[in-house]
Amino acid sequence: MHGTSTLTAFIGFNFGQKIVIHRKYVPEEVLRTIEKEKVSSVSLVGDAMLRPLADALAGPMAGTDCSSLFTISSSGAIMSETVRAQFQALVPTVMILNNFGSSESGFNGTATDDSGPANGFRLRVNAHVAVVDLATTEPVAVGEPGRIALRGHVPLGYYNDPAKTAETFFQRDGERWVLLGDMATVDEDGVVTVLGRGSQCINTGGEKVYPEEVEEALKAHPDVYDALVAGVPDEKWGNHVAAVVQPRDGADPLTLDDIQAHCRTRLAGYKIPRSLVVMDRIQRSPSGKADYRWARSVATDAAEAGR
Question: Is 162 inside a domain boundary?
């Protein structure tokens, strides 16, 4: 409803292409439309949309002709490696892209082929993108964390909100920059590794854990359909990592021991969930974005009830 749908439509209009819009996301109807209209490009939001599409194509919609599809792209939420592989096996010819950007900045880059649980969400960006130190707004050193920023065609600010404008935009070397909400590092080749939203970072015993990395590992579990991760107050560690998980239909009951054993093969010890809440459904926004406030509330209530 923001940048993703608008920019996708404008790109299509610019090339004289047909634009197909669904009023409601029903995977079976989306697949029927792809076949009927010979859709070449689909824009969606993360696993919340791609996984149901893959499940429908592997189940009741098996045999749907998706040969017209050239690309499936996501922004606003990351498509996990597990779900991407599931859809890729069903439609081998499609290019599946994790794009990165924001309503304030537009498109900033596309994930590299080596993105995944082992390497993180890595982006190849252009010269208008930098990772900057918040205190100085200067580019950070290689390997040091900072905020992603963009220069060039950026907004003047937020309407009637000078305080938020001052927090988000800055001037450097005569150019206007916009700060995104994501923390990241940059390597010697200029490839940016996105760590996650700074506001959602979990501080556990002095170590910083970004939920997206843990969620990627959780979704690789064969019995996990969806997952969110949040920090829960902890007397010893300040906060601990908590997983809120939606199991697959018909899956065996999930236990904390099972989840921890699975995550140990993919994550450092301090990033492994210390508590688990199993829910019938993961709550997300209508656009498919994570509702971390809900996840934190659910995990905190469960921890307090268990004390």
Answer: yes
